[in-house]
Specification:
The structure holds two protein chains of two kinds.
Chain A (H helix, E strand, L loop, with lengths): L3 E8 L2 E7 L1 H6 L5 E5 L7 E9 L4 E6 L4 H7 L9 E6 L10 E7 L2 H14 L3 E8 L8 H4 L5 E6 L10 H11 L4 E5 L2 H11 L6 E4 L15 E4 L2 E4 H4 L2 E3 L5 H8 L3 H15 L2
Parallel strand pairs in A: 7-8, 7-10, 8-9, 10-11
Antiparallel strand pairs in A: 1-2, 2-5, 3-4, 3-6, 4-5, 11-14, 12-13
Helix pairs in contact in A: 5-6
Chain B lengths: L8 H11 L2 H9 L2 H6 L10 H4 L12 H10 L8 H4 L6 H10 L2 H11 L3 H7 L11 H6 L5 H14 L15 E5 L3 H12 L3 E5 L8 H4 L8 H13 L3 E3 L10 H6 L4 E4 L5 E2 L12 E3 H10 L17 E5 L3 H12 L4 E5 L11 H9 L3 E3 L2 E8 L5 E14 L5 E5 L5 E4 L2 E4 L3 E2 L3 H5 L25 E3 L2 H4 L4 H21 L4
Parallel strand pairs in B: 1-2, 1-4, 2-3, 4-16, 6-14, 7-8, 7-14, 8-9
Antiparallel strand pairs in B: 5-15, 10-11, 11-12, 11-13
Helix pairs in contact in B: 5-7, 7-8, 7-11, 8-11, 9-11, 12-21, 16-17
Classes of the chains: A alpha/beta, B alpha/beta.
């Protein structure tokens, strides 16, 4: 079983998980994900690959504990093993030399933006990185992202890094200030949909990494159906990246909440079992 | 397709040699044919419908030894049996049945295993009535075939109870490395055959349990997982290595594996891409593909939620769209998960249903409602995006189509709306595209199926073979295993002749 190399809390309620997975480390590219199951009775969930070390053969993901699975992951220690760490799944992000790219990451998505900024920079683009945190103490990986960014803007509600504006306003300002050729955004559904609305009027190509519920992650089940441009797509094999202006966001919001009641039940049952 | 009616000369000779053994002659003489024909078929003992439709324990209980011997006595031990040619993997059926009659259950099990790597599975899920039992001469003479499937299940269960069967003596290692992609019925069969040939076999499986459709698709009440675990354990004793959570095409490509020294490949990745009808509302919450629904319940154990973490909607009034075995499995699962009403919605009539007769029969006993000549046209959601009703259209049967079945034609103006809070779409699967997409040079047909030569199951790439649903587009476990046997023989020849890798 894949061995956990490192699991640490980066900032409150955001954790890093580094797992020994030499094959995945050798193959993975920016934008792909792994399917993880924390224990034998667990659920399979997708996590975006945030970093990898091809020589050491390790793959790193960053996640936020919200439900049973992510809480179980947050309790892992180095030396533990997980029954499933499979991938790399999904299509890699389309990285081209397009000019200026705005990479926007929010919350757990800041980590996922890191390999994208790196890849766009390596491809010869000017890279502007916009990271969004609720408060200054929730910022992480600034040092990892900075080397790949021509400009790094931190958007925070408490003003330590400057303005307290919400992300869409930052996006509109950047877009008004200079010519942006591509926007890529990773974060929660709300974060990505609000960036989609911010870039829609100017018609700037905006790619988002969608996060619907998945089971197998290989195209077998169709749990991750999303409607893009009026057509049903499977996020696991046709994505996870899609054109933000063509995504049916209302459907995605609803489908992500499919099991809300069950998620609460599951968490209560697990807490009772584990912390009696 | 590859349905050769005649046995190969070598197999025909083996069958004849067994037929002429003294003990067989003695057995034939012991009970005259007339007496044999008077014996009634031993019914399969099963749990009552009112008890079983609330849990996931197995429905059929299996024959007792005396019942099995009595059933075996019904077999006339024909000089020219029809049953063997009806079996896609060519089990020497009369020989194993006569060994049962003789009381040598272990030898009977070993005989089945010579041709079938998953006998306890096939004894449960094969459509025997349209294969071996269809060709049984007793059926032609008296109307009721020998219960070959029930006997196959009996001998393999006997073997599993007795410790799983001793692995055959293996030839010295050949030194050849074989990669099998997909641990479904086809892949497991190839693995067993080639391991017996002394080759080093590695099975690469994308999911975390071996079995493919046998583990994610077929429910516990029809095929207990313990059976599959035992069959896989047998393969491990033969030296087969399993690499789980390894997605060939993603984790490593076929070319990567070739570079690691694998010489021949078998691609058995199945029909892992669910079809939808593309009608409005299909993405509402509560509308599942059968693959997702069954995977949640079987592979992820959602029936034991919240002890297991994966949830599934129970549904109060559940509709399953389709008329095949997967539809039957889904609708009976919905009933077991607590649906007050569980409906089959099928666009043709009862006679065209592709499901096994026994499954339809069991479903009816368990209180499943069948709505024939009906097709959903859209799903209607509530304010939260959850399905609450569906609109259907009535059909009538027109002229036969290319499959020979009468084509359903819509009856204009027959739309009606009915309330449902769970829908499972079980209208078939397409081949999984992962391998074709990532294997340059692999020739693929119009429907995404891998092109093969039916005589050897060889693909357009040297050393790469394929079989099962990825070449057929959606068939049965046993047809996949038949393909696998053909492929394994060709792969073995290729390795022994030292052809180019």
């Amino acid at each position: 079983m894949p061995r956990v190399i490192r699991r640490e809390r980066l900032v409150p309620n955001i954790h890093l998980l580094e797992v020994e997975a030499p094959e995945i480390a050798r193959k993975c590219r920016a934008g792909q994900f792994v399917i993880v199951m924390p224990d034998a009775r667990g659920e399979r969930i997708p996590l975006t690959i945030a970093d990898w070390d091809r020589e050491r053969g390790t793959v790193t993901s960053v996640f936020m504990p919200v439900g049973t699975t992510t809480r179980k992951l947050a309790l892992l220690r180095s030396g533990d093993s997980v029954p499933i760490f499979a991938g790399p799944l999904g299509l890699p992000s389309e990285i081209g030399t397009v000019g200026t790219v705005l990479c926007a990451g929010g919350c757990f998505g800041i980590a996922a933006i890191h390999p994208l900024a790196r890849a766009f920079k390596e491809a010869g683009n000017r890279v502007v990185v916009l990271v969004d945190v609720k408060a200054d103490y929730l910022l992480y990986w600034r040092d990892k992202i900075e080397p790949h960014a021509d400009e790094l803007i931190v958007s925070s509600r408490d003003g330590l890094y400057g303005r307290t504006d919400f992300v869409p306003r930052h996006v509109r300002e950047i877009v008004g200030r200079e010519k942006i050729d591509r926007v890529v955004a990773v974060g929660c559904t709300y974060f990505m949909s609000s960036i989609a609305e911010a870039t829609r009027p100017a018609g700037i190509k905006t790619m988002v990494s969608l996060n619907p519920i998945m089971v197998d992650g290989t195209g077998m089940c169709g749990a991750c159906r999303v409607t893009v441009d009026g057509r049903t797509k499977f996020a696991c094999v046709d994505g996870p990246d899609f054109d933000a202006h063509l995504v049916d966001w209302v459907e995605l919001y609803a489908r992500r909440k499919s099991y809300f009641d069950d998620e609460v039940r599951s968490l209560c049952a697990w807490e009772e079992e584990r912390f009696p | 397709m590859s349905d050769q009616d005649k046995l190969s000369p070598s197999l025909a000779a083996e069958v004849l040699a067994e037929f002429e053994k003294d003990w067989r002659k003695d057995l034939r003489r012991a009970v005259p044919v007339k007496e044999r024909m008077k014996i009634g078929r031993s019914p399969m003992p099963q749990r009552g419908p009112g008890e079983r439709n609330r849990d996931f324990l197995e429905v059929n209980l299996g024959l007792a030894a005396a019942e099995a011997v009595a059933e075996a006595r019904r077999c006339l031990d024909c000089a020219k049996p029809g049953c063997i040619a009806g079996c896609p993997v060519r089990i020497d059926i009369p020989t194993f049945i006569k060994l049962v009659e003789k009381g040598d259950f272990a030898a009977a099990a070993a005989k089945v295993r010579e041709a079938n790597s998953l006998p306890a599975v096939c004894g449960r899920v094969c459509p025997q009535e349209s294969q071996c039992e269809e060709r049984c001469h007793l059926k032609k003479a008296s109307g009721v075939a020998v219960a070959i499937g029930n006997l196959e299940r009996f001998v393999s269960d006997y073997e599993l109870r007795e410790g799983g069967g001793a692995p055959p003596r293996l030839p010295p290692p050949s030194g050849h490395k074989v990669a099998v992609v997909g641990a479904g019925p086809a892949g497991l069969t190839v693995a067993g055959e080639l391991a017996r040939g002394g080759h080093r076999v590695t099975v690469f499986e994308a999911l975390h349990e071996a079995g493919g459709v046998l583990v994610y698709g077929i429910p516990e009440f029809r095929l207990p997982k313990s059976i599959l675990v035992a069959e896989v354990a047998y393969l491990k004793r033969l030296g087969v290595e399993f690499r789980m959570n390894f997605i060939v095409g993603k984790t490593a490509t076929v070319d990567d594996l070739r570079a690691e020294g694998y010489e021949v490949f078998f691609i058995g990745t199945g029909a892992g891409l669910p079809n939808f009808m593309k009608v409005p509302g299909e993405n509402l919450i509560g509308v599942y593909s059968a693959n997702e629904y069954l995977t949640r319940v079987n592979l992820m154990r959602a029936y034991d939620f919240p002890r297991y973490d994966t949830p599934v909607f129970p549904g109060r009034r559940a509709a399953v769209i389709g008329g095949g075995n997967v539809a039957m499995d889904s609708v009976r699962t919905a009933k077991r998960l607590g649906a007050e009403e569980a409906l089959i919605i099928y666009r043709r009539s009862r006679t065209e249903m592709p499901a096994r007769v026994e499954e339809v029969h069991h479903a009816e006993e368990e209180g499943i409602e069948f709505h024939f000549l009906t097709v959903p046209t859209r799903y209607i959601g509530d304010e939260h995006g959850r399905v609450r009703a569906m609109e259907c259209l009535r059909m009538e049967l027109g002229e036969p189509d290319s499959s020979g079945r009468r084509r359903p034609v819509p009856v204009p103006g027959s739309e009606f709306v009915t309330e449902v809070d769970l829908v499972v779409v079980a209208i078939g699967q397409s081949p999984n595209p992962l391998i074709p997409q990532t294997t340059p040079g692999l020739s693929v047909g119009k429907w995404g199926t891998i092109d093969i030569d039916w005589g050897t199951m060889a693909t357009s790439l040297p050393g790469v073979y394929s079989g099962g649903d990825i070449v057929r587009g959606g068939a049965t476990v046993i047809l996949a295993m038949g393909d696998a046997r053909t492929a394994a023989a060709a792969m073995d020849r290729r390795l022994k002749e030292g052809g180019p890798a």
